[in-house]
Amino acid sequence: MTTTPLTLDQLRADVADVLGEDPADIPVDENLVDYGLDSVRLMSLLGRWRRDHGVTASFADLAEQPALEKWVQLLTREA
Prior knowledge:
15% of the residues are buried. The chain has helices at residues 8-19, 39-53, 59-64, 68-78. By secondary structure, the protein is an all-alpha fold. The chain is globular and about 25 Å long. The protein contains four helices and no strands.
């Protein structure tokens, strides 16, 4: 199965989706916990990204620095 790499736009759209927000309202440089991202939602996102994009990062990797700018660096390094 071929997977497509994650982009910042895709990360933002997916986070906005689980938070019920508009993607434009999700900042790239702020702690997503402050926007309502909890561990259950993060696990949901991680499961989606593993399935659809071949992500291998752990929950701890993402929870350690919950900001899109950090995640895009980590997840695009994997590709």
